[in-house]
């Protein structure tokens, strides 16, 4: 599943960091820092898939020399607490190819150059060999000054200012989300990323009437593990996989993150079941089934994960084709349909064994609400929906098919009687 991540950090002298060391480490190269007289050699570093530098058109030729570039950036700063570089850390979609990942990263770097006039040094890293193999990412190191023909000049204060820095970064977050979504669309992926906060996404879902998505987004942001805890959890996951046992977090942060991910996975599965049940209900209704039979078929489909028959798959394919023909349907109507299916299934499953449950059964059977006395006993009243569902779900498939056939025979008899009545009405010799 595609996920979004973009973080911005600064390389500060006050923290004991240098642009030369940062550039050497991320690119896996050897750079001698002329200001400090130290050599940063990371040529043995592995997992670096690609590196390249993007600079303004009128930049000096030495801008393409990584060692010269970052030594010049260090030389342009004179204060002990100067910020000598800025790093943009990007998560790359695992669903697209390495070429596509390189392309969208280059486009992002070009946007930084165009917007701020800085030099950009890009290093694309592969997933850690012991970590999540979907964790493709890029380190985008930029100068904090504009790069012009004479060298580094004015500071990019628009990114440093408290008033404008947040706005600029948020705009670049949107740019990165758009680049990823275009790449995902090109390869036919349905998933999309969203750079907005969970709160903003939830409010947007509520405005368009998508209550299920709003509930899914009503959570806290995932806790960041940090390097130490992340390393411990990676080792434990690898050990659990080797030994064939269930993974259990070994740190408090890991336990919180693991529980949150399990909850999100359970919610996604529930949502998939609800949506699938809605599709099955529509298929069965189109096939001539009554509301009760179609509802039960939908609930059986929702509770039978991984046991979808070929017949249902074929019917769903036909529904999908019809859905494409209904392209003119508004977003509000589509959202309304999804919400109705969810609310209806929730109503059916949550009804208790009392009056509400019996009323729901009568309503689904096409009758008006019965007058049920308060003194109606368990032996005299009809079974509740939950009781009927348990009974149906526990029946063998052959018995269900026989009962469905009986229902269809009854429906056919009723239809034949109606046809006879219509023939009598049309025949003048039989009229009274």
Automatic annotation (TrEMBL):
It comes from the Bacteria. Belongs to the MobA/MobL family. The lineage of its organism: Bacteria, Pseudomonadati, Pseudomonadota, Alphaproteobacteria, Rhodobacterales. This is MobA/MobL family protein. The keyword Coiled coil does not apply. Residues 226-247, 318-432 are annotated as: Disordered. Residues 232-247, 318-329, 340-355, 362-432 have a biased composition (Basic and acidic residues). Keywords: Conjugation. Residues 17-202 form the MobA/MobL protein domain. It comes from Litoreibacter ascidiaceicola. The keyword Transport does not apply.
């Amino acid at each position: 599943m595609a996920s979004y991540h973009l973080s911005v950090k600064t390389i500060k002298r006050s923290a004991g960091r240098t642009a030369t060391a940062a550039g050497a480490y991320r690119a896996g190269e050897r750079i001698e820092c002329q200001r400090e007289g130290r050599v940063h050699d990371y040529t043995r570093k592995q997992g670096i898939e690609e590196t390249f530098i993007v600079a303004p058109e009128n930049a000096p030729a030495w801008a393409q020399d990584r060692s010269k570039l970052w030594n010049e950036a260090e030389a342009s700063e004179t204060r002990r607490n100067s910020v000598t570089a800025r790093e943009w850390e990007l998560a790359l979609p695992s669903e697209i190819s390495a070429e596509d990942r390189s392309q969208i990263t280059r486009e992002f770097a070009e946007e930084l150059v165009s917007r701020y006039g800085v030099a950009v040094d890009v290093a694309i890293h592969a997933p850690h060999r012991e970590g999540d193999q979907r964790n493709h990412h890029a380190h985008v190191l930029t100068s904090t000054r504009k790069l012009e023909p004479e060298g580094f000049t004015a500071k990019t204060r628009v990114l440093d200012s408290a008033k404008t820095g947040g706005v600029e970064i948020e705009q670049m977050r949107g740019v990165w989300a758009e680049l990823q979504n275009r790449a995902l669309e090109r390869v036919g992926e349905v998933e999309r990323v969203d750079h907005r906060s969970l709160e903003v996404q939830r409010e947007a879902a509520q405005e368009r009437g998508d209550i299920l998505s709003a509930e899914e987004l009503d959570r806290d942001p995932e806790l960041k593990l940090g390097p130490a805890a992340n390393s411990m959890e990676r080792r434990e996951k690898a050990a659990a996989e080797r030994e064939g046992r269930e993974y259990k977090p070994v740190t408090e942060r890991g336990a919180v993150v693991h529980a949150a991910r399990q909850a999100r996975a359970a919610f996604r599965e529930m949502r998939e079941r609800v949506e699938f049940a809605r599709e099955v209900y529509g298929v069965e209704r189109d096939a001539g089934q009554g509301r009760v039979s179609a509802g039960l078929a939908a609930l059986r489909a929702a509770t039978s994960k991984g046991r979808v028959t070929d017949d249902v798959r074929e019917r769903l394919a036909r529904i999908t084709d019809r859905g494409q023909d209904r392209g003119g349907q508004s977003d509000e109507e589509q959202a309304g349909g999804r919400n109705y299916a969810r609310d209806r299934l929730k109503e059916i499953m949550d009804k208790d064994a009392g009056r509400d449950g019996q009323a729901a059964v009568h309503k689904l059977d096409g009758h008006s609400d019965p007058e049920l006395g308060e003194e109606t006993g368990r032996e005299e009243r009809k079974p509740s929906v939950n009781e009927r569902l348990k009974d149906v779900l526990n029946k063998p498939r052959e018995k269900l098919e026989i009962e469905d056939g009986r229902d269809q025979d009854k429906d056919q008899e009723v239809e034949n009687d109606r046809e006879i009545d219509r023939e009598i009405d049309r025949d003048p010799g039989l009229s009274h």
